[in-house]
Amino acid sequence: MGQHEKLLERLRRRPKDFRWEQLKTLLGGFGYEEEKGSGSRRKFFNAKTGVSISLHEPHPRNELKSYQVKNVLDHLKQEGLL
């Protein structure tokens, strides 16, 4: 099992300590690229599908909030990636 699969499996368990860098790696494996917005706003855009997901980069801690993990999982399911 590669890093992408391990991160996806970990995200599915909805951990409280899933880090922003892990999310970037995971979404990058699906073809998403991070685009910076104003402040902590970030958009992950998939050029192949034309679909994006918008999130706020967590700060000062690096862990995603539980609603962000749910939003990412919901988005991946909706796009047929899960």
Overall description:
This protein has 82 residues and is α+β, with helices and mostly antiparallel strands. It has one domain: Metal Transport, Frataxin, Chain A (2-Layer Sandwich). The protein contains 3 helices and 3 strands; from the N terminus they run H-H-E-E-E-H. It has a 3-stranded antiparallel sheet, with helices on one face. A hairpin with a 4-residue loop joins strand 1 and strand 2. Helix 1 crosses helix 2. The longest helix has 13 residues. The radius of gyration is 12 Å and the shape is globular. The two termini are 16 Å apart. The model has no long low-confidence stretch (mean pLDDT 93).
Record keyword descriptors for this entry.
single chain, 82 residues, Metal Transport, Frataxin, Chain A, three-stranded antiparallel β-sheet, 3 helices
Any chance you could write out the topology, listing elements then pairs?
Blueprint lengths: L2 H10 L7 H10 L2 E5 L4 E6 L4 E6 L9 H13 L4
Antiparallel strand pairs: 1-2, 2-3
Helix pairs in contact: 1-2
Strand order of the largest sheet: 1-2-3
What pattern of helices and strands is seen along the backbone? HHEEEH
Query: The CATH topology is what?
Result: Metal Transport, Frataxin, Chain A
Mean pLDDT: 93
Q: Could you say which overall geometry the principal axes of the C-alpha atoms support?
A: globular
Sequence stretches where pLDDT stays below 50 over 5 or more residues: none
Biggest sheet: strands, sense, closure?
Answer: 3 strands, antiparallel
Number of separate strands: 3
Total number of domains: 1
Radius of gyration, taken over Cα atoms and rounded to an integer in Å: 12 Å
Distance between the termini: 16 Å
Proportion in helices: 40-55%
- What is the CATH architecture annotation? 2-Layer Sandwich
Number of helices: 3
Q: What percent of residues are in strands?
A: 15-25%
- What class do helices, strands and sheet pairing give? alpha+beta
- The CATH class label is Alpha Beta
